[in-house]
Fold these 2 entries.
Entry 1:
Amino acid sequence: MTQDSYYAGKGEDVPVNLSAPSNQYTVPQQQQQQQGAYYAPPYATQQASPYSMPAAQPTYMVSVQHVDSYGSSSHDGSLVPCCASSSRTFDLARAVFVRNVLLIVTAQLLLVAGMSSFFYFIDDVREFIVEQSYWTWIVAFVLELTSLILLLVFRKKKGPAAILLTIFTLASGTPRASLSLSLYLVDSFVTHTSSRTAHISAFNRILLAIFLFVQTWL
Amino acid sequence: MCFYELRIVIEAVLITFGVVFVCVGYVVITRADFRWLILGTYLARTHLTEIAIDIARYRSTRSLAHSLARLAAPVILALSMCLLFWSFSFMFYWIYPSIYVYEWYYNVVCLIVIILFVCYLLFDMSLIVNKYPTDEYIFAAVNLYLDILTIFMYVLALLGGRK
């Protein structure tokens, strides 16, 4: 499996007993009922099918879905059988990664909370929000979208990604922090103004879904 | 322009952190895979024959859980597109009249968006715990941050819209 197709590859990879190729279609009954395992047809293991994922590991694999064990990550090249639910391993790099992600998200949310309190509690800044022209929000949205797409491009490079993360957090936090706590009165009906920032979130989600779909199926 | 009361904002923050804490904790502890919510239930199938076997099994059993699982990804994609175009209409609010004729309509829209982004949060967390390469934490953090912020904004809208 190449490095770029890790996001949505096979569910789990289970090695097949190579010494008994005639047994390739006979699955143990208990395993088949519990996990819904399907053995790949033999021609799919020998030649590259246009419908199958590129695989860097030896392709004598079985895809198993709905197994709650993710002991082996799919890109480390280890052939650890994952069927037994007791075979969970502790991946230190993965744990450090999750910790880094949660720390960065906490820092971003604290920054947005600070900006929100800046806009919320200081009266001069409140009046400054009202006096803003529409172009301010357009510039913020364009910066946010641009830095998001550039993040998608430069996600492997630490330095540009950190700079783009800072730009993105400031540019996305400004309209949200100032608008999400405020209300508009339109024809004596209260409208939530943060609905106007929803298209960025929706656009991001659809962009990422298309990206993952392309990486999975193409 | 007026602002929400501080009590409502604090309530929204607490509710959002409860939801996010439960979702993130569940995915981190169990390492559950929620990719099928967004990418579809045929995700782990690497060959068309496997998809055919899946369809045959579904036609023979017709279980409710399987039906709902098959529906999840297209429904979520359609709801995302609806949210996108619906929020585009807000950019031209001086042209379009307000579609919130009833109070409950707005609450239902907010609830749907909250459920949608909780699904995306679960999806993102399962990607982070299982699938992301370990050097892309900035990109992973941005997705998680957008989900949490959107959930917060719509919880705030739901709480602030009530009388």
Entry 2:
Amino acid sequence: MNLEKIQNEILEKEDNFAILENGKMIYCSFSSTDLKIEKNMSLKVIHFIDKDTEIDIEIASGISAKIEEIYYYVKNNVEINTNITIADYACLDYLNFERNEDSQKIITNVRIHLGKEAKINNKSIALFDGEVFSNQYVYLDGEGAINDSINVIINSSEAKQDFTYNLYHQVPNTNSTMVNYAICKKKSLLNVNTNGIIVKGAKNTNLSQKVKGLLMDLEAMISANPKLQIDEYDCMAAHGASIGAIDEDELYYLMSRGLTKEASETLIVEGFINPFLLEIKSKKFQNYIKYWSSKHI
Amino acid sequence: MNIKEFSVNNMRTLEIKNLHACVEDKEILKGINLKVNTGEVHAIMGPNGTGKSTLASVIMGHYRYQVTEGEVKIDDEDLLAMSVDERSRKGIFLAMQYPNEISGITNSDFIKTAMQARLSEGEHISLFKFIKQMDKAVDDLKMNKDLPHRYLNEGFSGGEKKRNEILQMKMLKPSFAILDEIDSGLDVDALRIVGENINNMRSDDFGAIIITHYQRLLDYLDVDYVHIIMNGKIVKSGGKELISKIDAEGYDWIKTELGIEDEEIVNRKAHAVLGSCAFKTSKE
């Protein structure tokens, strides 16, 4: 681990950060040995992973935290399980930046539990190089819990990648929105499954899911499968999916200002990612994500 | 070499010869001839559907149009052989009638990228100079200060989009700008501001083709030549006096003077000659 390199690439001077090797904390800029957050704070969690890993994050009741989780170095055929528990009245601003070094198969499972009136602003960007099976489970366990998710996936690996997002509304008065941007290049295949589940008794629930797919090559394929499983009458649920190629008129407009076709396509795809980056305060971290995104576009 | 000689030697020319173009097998341009030098402003007028916007799109290289005959050259280089982006980098700019909205890309990032595309490898735009230049252009066009940070044309009013086209033109400094109905959607004040800004760009390094229906924009612009397009051809060229005559009398006098029939009538006769048994006119 080269701390200086990490600091140069993603850390600002004032950042709290923790470095984990296969889920075990090996360095922390503040006095802690785990990821139990018990005071209001911002934190970057930097991962080095080369074997199966369990990660546990807990946000204590009433706490407001911001966590940026970064798969800084992920290698080999690994399974990564992340459990996030957000206790009653707590709020988590969460960003997960996922990538790997090689093209080996990756399995990720992220399980998020939200307590009473807990909230998560949940963002992820996935830039994997090989086969992927990724599952995210958001359990709205407490009344008044809120989940707002935006996920960006770019698959230019020429491999099959499966991303499944599950939203479980278990109790009344819960809200969730989810927008997934799926970008597929070359001969890659990207499956984006979204499942919204509202159980009986989860009254006054709102659930909305959207998938927007962008095909950048003729041989690229995206399959969007939005599903709703509703067992309660008193709720609102909506889902939708659209998949298409880059708009020829948009390309023409950008090219008419001197941008090459490739540069225009890159700019249009960056348009998917940029609103996401705007919420990241650190310029270094923004540039880090931009750098890796541009390698995949 | 004195300044005048230098200026003449650096004059650029956009020349269109016998240009024919079609869209989905329908011929729209039927032999356009036009020569524009830098330092000149040409206005192109004409009734609806006669090929004005098609001419602009064909010069820029829009994918829907096919050139079937003729040539377009910039300083003796074949413009038609170039891709859209190459044409732009060669100095052509088209201010579009309906500019696209592109989400997630701010105006300033887009313009900076477009300016960067004009530089040689290894050269970079000075951020300080860019911001200064952008601020000045925004001020000149009396646009909102937040405009550079908004996504490209997204949520812009019709007038804001048109001003944004002029903003891009000011920043990219093309040799030839084609302004396709830039006056539509502009209120009186915006029209004056846009007109003044185009006028201020007049120099030996800049030429313009202004496509319009009305005199109102041309009130603010110093126009050297006026051309009338009908049925896909330039049928009349002259000076500024043509503008006021058209504004007062419309285009019918030109049709009468030159014996031009409306395309619709010509087509109907053509159908009759073909004698299609399934053809019916409203009179029948």
